[in-house]
Every structure is written in C-alpha cells, then in structure tokens.
Amino acid sequence: MTTLITHPLPVLAVGIALGSRVLPPRLLLAGLFFACLPDADVAAFKLGIAYADAFGHRGFSHSLLFAGCCALFGALIAPLLRCGPLKAGLFVGLSTLSHSLLDALTDGGLGVAWFWPWDLQRYFLPWRPIEVSPFIGGFFTQRGLDVLLSEARWVGLPCLVLALGGFGLRRLFGKRRAE
C-alpha cells in the first residue's frame, strides 16, 4: 500500500488545480476523506480477518463496487457538500477509486480486489514503480524512509506539477478575463 500521507495527494492536487469555484471546500474535504477511507480495512487485522480474505486489506473496500457506493453516498449528501449530486458523486467516487489505483502501482502486497464480489482475484497495474509501505511497525525505519522517497517521486512530484500548473493557469486566465 501507499501511505496515508500519499493517498490524499492526488485529490488535493486536483482541488488546488481546479480551485474552490469548481470544487467547493466541503467537497474537497469529502474527497480527501474518501481517498483514505479504503484503508479502514486494516481494522480487519484486529478482528482476526486475514489479509487475503475478501474483507481483508485491499479487499472489498478497494473495489469498484465500493467506490461506486461511495459515489452514490456523495451524490446523496451533495447539498451538505454545497454542489450538485452529479459533481459530488463523481468527485467522491473518483477520490475513492484513486486509493486503489495508487495501491495497484505498488511493488508488493497481494494486489487490489477491483472486481469484488464477482471476482476475488487481486490485481496490480502492469507498471509498479511505488515501493510498498510497511505496516506501522516497520514504518519508522530506513525502509519506511525509502518508501516515502519513492512516493515523493512517483506521486508527490506529479501532484505538485498538477496543482501548481492548474493554479497557474487559473491565475493566468483569470487576469486575462479581468483585462
């Protein structure tokens, strides 16, 4: 898995790139929350549920169905998020899905159960440049630092480019409209 530090970065980058006129702050906060939500499945370890189980880590909570359910929930709470249901549903659903996409780019673990409950197989993407994160016990080690550096390179830098590029374009075109 990638770390909880990394999972919200793509959502935050999109939020900065598009700005609060397109993505209201409440919707952005919901997106940040839903980008991290799939890793709530680590509680399964405490309940004795094995990693490889459908309800284990990277199981049902990383599926397309789960992202779709989150999207539906986002659409239902759209008034609280200060936007329309289509925008809320799409943003929340894609934010949730971004989590499993990042996990599928890692070089370890069992993969992601994208097609649960119809297919219990776990999948990775063909290109897997991100070092898999150790669980809490191994995080504060050299390996944990290596993972953070890998995430900075493969997730952080592209997100920074997206955020600054979008912000810059908004400023540039905003000034042109004012003239």
Task: Itemize the secondary structure elements and their pairings.
Elements: H1 9-18, H2 25-36, H3 43-46, H4 64-76, H5 78-81, H6 85-104, H7 136-139, H8 142-178
In short:
It contains 8 helices and no strands. With 179 residues, the chain is mostly helical. The mean pLDDT is 93.
Explained architecture:
Keywords: Hydrolase, Membrane, Transmembrane, Transmembrane helix. This is Metal-dependent hydrolase. This protein has 8 helices and no strands. Helix 1 (9-18) packs antiparallel against helix 2, helix 1 (9-18) runs parallel beside helix 8 (142-178) and helix 2 (25-36) packs parallel to helix 6 (85-104). The radius of gyration is 17 Å and the shape is globular. The chain has helices spanning 9-18, 25-36, 43-46, 64-76, 78-81, 85-104, 136-139, 142-178. The longest helix is centred in the C-terminal third of the chain and has 37 residues, at 142-178. The mean pLDDT is 93. The protein has 179 residues and is mainly α. The protein has one domain (9-178).
Question: Which tags fit this structure?
Answer:
single chain; transmembrane; hydrolase; globular; 8 helices; mainly alpha; transmembrane helix; membrane; YdjM-like; 179 residues
Low-confidence stretches: none
Number of beta-strand segments: 0
Residue fraction in strands:
under 5%
Overall residue-averaged pLDDT value: 93
- Number of spatially distinct domains: 1
Instruction: Write down the secondary-structure element order.
Output: HHHHHHHH
The DSSP helix count reads 8
Helix and strand composition category: mainly alpha
Helix content: 55-70%
Largest sheet: none
Between the first and last Cα atoms, what is the distance in angstroms?
A: 48 Å
